[in-house]
Amino acid sequence: MADHLTGRVAIVTGAAHGIGRASAIHLAELGCDIVIADADEGGARELADDIATNTAIWTGDLTEEDAASAVVRAAVTEFGRIDIVVSNAGYSRNALIEDMTESVFREMIDIHQVVPWRLLKAAAPHLTASAERVDADGHRCAAKVVTMASMSAYGSGHGQTNYGSAKAGLIGLTKALAREWGPRNICVNAVAPGVIDTRLTRVANPDTVAHIGGREVPYGLSEQTAQAMNMGVLLTAVGRSGTDQDVAGTVGFLCSPASDYITGQVLNVSGGMASCMSS
Q: Catalytic residue positions?
């Protein structure tokens, strides 16, 4: 694997599992040093053991008010710079709107919109400094931000008025920030996965609970939502669900010099889902 990101430092949130883990491993294969941010300390340390490049670990509840600044401080303390931010942390809490509490609705807004906003606000001066650096060939290397959106932002998620709303807002944040930061040579893009086989897209059971900041947070899908999602697989051009590596490859591209003239975009990683095969 080419090591064209050697010397660059990437923060990856929600890195201990699934898409975040695959993305962190792929970026390390490209040469990045990785700041692993996750609520699962054990999973974060296992990931660090599997990465050949240098790592730093921050564990905690990203929805705490000072958490985003703490992640940035951990990166700067360990590596002295930040070149890439992959804002991936998140999960879903699914229910039909009449059965959904307002607290569960707001929970999705917090993790999928407020947390990325805080993280990128805190990282702003460091990404700006990164984008001003010049390589040995006299080339200014763009700093990169990748947010993790979802096909649910387009209204394709059953029982996901909260999740879909949050991811749609995240796309709005991504595009607005791309406009603000374009003149600084910072590229800001989103990836919108379709049906990806991870622990979050399997049917929930009593054991599918994450421990985040002293809270027990259930994850996984209801049978009804899972059935609707499986129907979506049948509507993909490639006829299969995706893998976390499918998404990680797109993240790697958006963090690489090959995408230095791409910003404000949402790349659908959906296997050609019929509802999203448009420009």
A: 163
